[in-house]
Design brief:
Protein name: NADP-dependent aldehyde dehydrogenase
Order of helices and strands: EHEEHEHEHEHHEHHH
Number of domains: 1
Strand order of the largest sheet: 3-2-1-4-5-6-7
Largest sheet: 7 strands, parallel
Radius of gyration: 18 Å
Organism: Nocardiopsis flavescens
InterPro entries: Epimerase_deHydtase (IPR001509), NAD(P)-bd_dom_sf (IPR036291), Sc_DH/Rdtase_CS (IPR020904)
Shape: globular
Keywords: NAD, Oxidoreductase
Family: Belongs to the NAD(P)-dependent epimerase/dehydratase family.
Number of helices: 9
Distance between the termini: 34 Å
CATH class: Alpha Beta
Helix content: 25-40%
């Protein structure tokens, strides 16, 4: 029996990394984005779709017949409030509602550490359900997505898994990412675990590799079957040498979970001066 997985934001960083890693015999991927994507290669079991997550009808059509939805779409950095509200919050609601109407009863939401960014690192090993303390409009959007996921589980019985992702890149880019890094291979392992977990209900968990320096809990992810295999420490000597020594855990960007997103220099007034990034499509 063929398993069908729909991915929103498939042309983005994580979507691009996951596309080859989620390929399996007996699995079909529906890759959805407004940005251009590579066409299906010979023998690749994918369907490339152009679709906007705020368009409920388009998402319902894209999800019909899917077993699960992996929701990666949205702005990944701080943006104007109107843009975060339209794309990251309203768009997530549309994705959940479209999945419900289409009968796709499991949704994995790409959350973020920025939903809890103003929590101090000194609090120890932050648990999976750390209360929201967003550091930006972007972080508020991710906290709102978790709330929407809770609603769709409690009201409609959907399985919704919210992953507070750290930093998913082929290699960590700086000393902070030695703590927050999620390797692409571990990201795929985590997604596979979340797709396979029997009746998980609503969960909030951290998306991070088993880094020697990690700040975040892996309890909930492991309970759902995640077995991370990577550790950023292999990159530590080069990164620490490049930055001139070990970072001070009591100084920015290492003292708060959100790192540089908590910096007062991230001036939202200037963001509000930008023209809107996009307008809502008509239903």
């Amino acid at each position: 029996m063929t398993q069908t997985i729909a991915l929103t934001g498939a042309a983005g960083n994580i979507g691009t990394l996951l596309r080859p890693r989620l390929a399996r015999p007996g699995r079909h991927l529906r890759l959805i984005d407004t940005a251009p994507q590579a066409p299906a290669a010979p023998g690749e079991a994918v369907r490339v779709l152009h679709g906007d997550i705020t368009d409920l009808a388009a998402m319902q059509a894209a999800f019909t017949g899917a077993d699960a939805v992996l929701h990666l779409a949205g702005f990944s950095l701080e943006e104007r409030w109107e843009d975060i509200l339209e794309v990251n919050i309203h768009g997530t609601r549309q994705v959940l509602e479209a999945a419900r109407r289409a009968g796709a009863h499991r949704v994995v939401l790409a959350g973020s550490n920025h939903a809890v960014g103003f929590h101090p690192r000194a609090d120890g090993d932050p648990g999976d359900y750390l209360f929201p303390r967003p550091d930006t409009h972007y972080g508020v959007g991710k906290a709102a997505a978790e709330a929407l996921g809770s609603l769709y589980h409690d009201r409609y019985g959907m399985d919704v898994l919210c992953v507070r992702i750290g930093s998913c890149f082929p290699e960590p880019r700086d000393s902070r990412m030695l703590a927050s890094w999620l390797s692409p291979d571990d990201c795929a392992r985590l997604v596979e675990a979340l797709l396979a977990a029997p009746s998980p209900g609503f969960r909030v968990l951290w998306g991070v590799s088993d880094n020697t320096r990690r700040w975040w809990s892996l309890t909930e992810a492991r309970a759902l079957g995640y077995a991370p295999a990577d550790d950023s420490e292999v990159f530590a000597p080069a990164i620490v040498a490049r930055e001139g020594g070990e970072p001070d855990p009591h100084r920015p960007p290492h003292h708060l979970l959100g790192g540089s997103f908590c910096d007062p220099a991230l001036d939202t007034d200037r963001l509000e001066e930008r023209p809107p990034r996009r307008a809502r499509p008509r239903d």
